[in-house]
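hey so i finally got around to running the thing on that chain from the lab meeting. sorry it took forever, my laptop kept dying and i had to restart like 3 times. anyway pasting the input first so we r on the same page abt which one it is
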Amino acid sequence: MNTKLFGLSMILILITGCAKPGIINQEYKPEQTIHYTQVGTIENISDYIVYMNKGDIIPLRMTLDSHLVELVSEKIDLILKQKIYFRLNKQIDMTAKSISSMSMANKEKLAKNIMIYLSPDAKRWVQYTDFKSVEKIIGIKGGAVSFGMGMDKKEGIKIFLNIKTTMI
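ok and heres what got predicted. didnt touch it at all, straight out
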């Protein structure tokens, strides 16, 4: 599958995905498991589970639409602190050939039916939008988000955003 096509597909999935709550138990064979760097070498991504290792980087693109300020850099690198697995629901043909021959309307229908699942162990899976189940299998107890402003003599005005998760 073309890497650009996969990236576009993942963006559409994240925007339009719908959730089925709960934890699904389903194991996969090692030969069905690939590192995310190998995604471009396979025919149908829904036949595999994809993993990222501790230390792998997930680029985060952040935008700010404001008449007051703008971001100098839209890219922030997130570094994984544990191995994580991803899979798509297997009912959908996600080959580059099948997607490229679809009309835009059919591509939109496809994006609405695709579900992304996450797992810490490739055995217990949850829909990425089911936050309560994600918290259970990842082991998150809670968290906090704080936003504020400050000023000091050395750096001048500072704005901060702190996000913290509490693990079980």
